């Protein structure tokens, strides 16, 4: 089982809709959870992150973690065409044999907001 | 403004050629990473480095090597390119000071096509 699972989509919704993007993870020891956004032909950029369980809100975006079910979600309210992108969930990972903290990514969900 | 620069956005090479992908960051970050991104497979870590001249294998190092002679520069080398190495290559960096989130800063990617 992969450490992070994410439905790749594509997910197409009309402008103004509430969007729900989801990931599941396997290791209950994970503490931090991130969401990256990647526009077409660009590199991913950090959108927001949460620690442990609960919600975190930033404008139209809400990140939610349910540690009991190992489920993380990103909600987008009042979705806009400019939100069209690939959204990747990510979990920090310490690589053995080295001193670096990296990230394990879900496959990413391609989101399309129709005007 | 933080910046990770990948020298080539688009490359076309022939099977068997040696390919160099260069990455430079201006943030004085200790850690640097090379990922490849493929449809349906997501982001996969090839190699990373946590210090000058230090390198560690990621999940898919076969067919690749890396070089880090200076802190700001991390090169990915394909000794003999093959068609299955056609992909988007993404360089990223991070600082040990940003623990525990381990946020990665990505370049815009290098799209490599091997014919």
How is this structure best summarized?
Chain A is mainly beta and 115 residues long. Chain A is 0% helix and 57% strand. Chain B has no helices and 11 strands.
Describe this structure in words.
The complex is a heterodimer of chains A (115) and B (115). Chain A is mostly beta strands and 115 residues long. Helices cover 0% and strands 57% of the residues of chain A. Chain A is built from no helices and 11 strands. Chain A has strands at 4-6, 11-14, 19-25, 32-38, 45-51, 54-58, 61-66, 71-76, 85-94, 101-105, 109-114. In chain A, a hairpin with a 6-residue loop joins strand 9 (85-94) and strand 10. Chain A is globular and about 40 Å long. Chain B is mainly beta. Helix content of chain B is 0%, strand content 51%. Chain B is built from no helices and 11 strands. In chain B, strands 2, 4, 5, 6, 9, 10 and 11 form a 7-stranded mixed β-sheet that branches. Chain B is globular, with a radius of gyration of 13 Å. Chain B starts with a strand and ends with a strand. At the A-B interface, strand 5, strand 9 and strand 10 of A face strand 5 and strand 9 of B.
Name some characteristics of this structure.
heterodimer; A: 115 residues; mainly beta; 5-stranded antiparallel beta sheet; 11 strands; B: 7-stranded mixed beta sheet; 4-stranded antiparallel beta sheet
Computed Rg of chain A: 14 Å
Major beta-sheet overview of chain B: 7 strands, mixed
Report the order of strands and helices of chain A.
EEEEEEEEEEE
What share of the residues of chain A does DSSP label as strand, in percent? over 45%
Give the CA-based shape of chain A.
globular
Number of helical segments of chain A? Answer: 0
**Which percent band covers the strand fraction of chain B?**
over 45%
Task: Give me the Rg of chain B, rounded.
Answer: 13 Å
Distance between the termini of chain A: 37 Å
Q: Label the structural class of chain A.
A: mainly beta
How far the N terminus sits from the C terminus of chain B, by CA atoms, comes to: 37 Å
């Amino acid at each position: 089982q992969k450490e992070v699972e994410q439905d790749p989509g594509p997910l197409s919704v009309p402008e103004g809709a509430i969007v729900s993007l989801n990931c599941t993870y396997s290791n209950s020891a994970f503490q931090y959870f991130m969401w990256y956004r990647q526009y077409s032909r660009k590199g991913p950029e950090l959108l927001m992150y949460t620690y442990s369980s609960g919600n975190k809100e930033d404008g139209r975006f809400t990140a939610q973690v349910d540690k009991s079910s190992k489920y993380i979600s990103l909600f987008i309210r009042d979705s806009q065409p400019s939100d069209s992108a690939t959204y990747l969930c990510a979990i920090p990972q310490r690589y053995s044999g080295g001193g670096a903290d990296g990230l394990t990514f879900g496959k990413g969900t391609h989101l399309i907001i129709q005007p | 403004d933080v910046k990770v620069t990948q020298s080539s956005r688009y490359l076309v090479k022939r099977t068997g050629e040696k390919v160099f992908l260069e990455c430079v960051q201006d943030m004085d970050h200790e850690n640097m990473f090379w990922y490849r991104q493929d449809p349906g497979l997501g982001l996969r870590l090839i190699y990373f480095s946590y210090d000058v001249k230090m390198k560690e294998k990621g999940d898919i190092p076969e067919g690749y090597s890396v070089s880090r002679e200076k802190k700001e520069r991390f090169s990915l080398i394909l000794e003999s390119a093959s068609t299955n190495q056609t992909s988007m290559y993404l360089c990223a960096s991070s600082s040990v000071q940003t623990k525990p989130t381990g946020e990665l800063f990505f370049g815009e990617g290098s799209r490599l096509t091997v014919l």
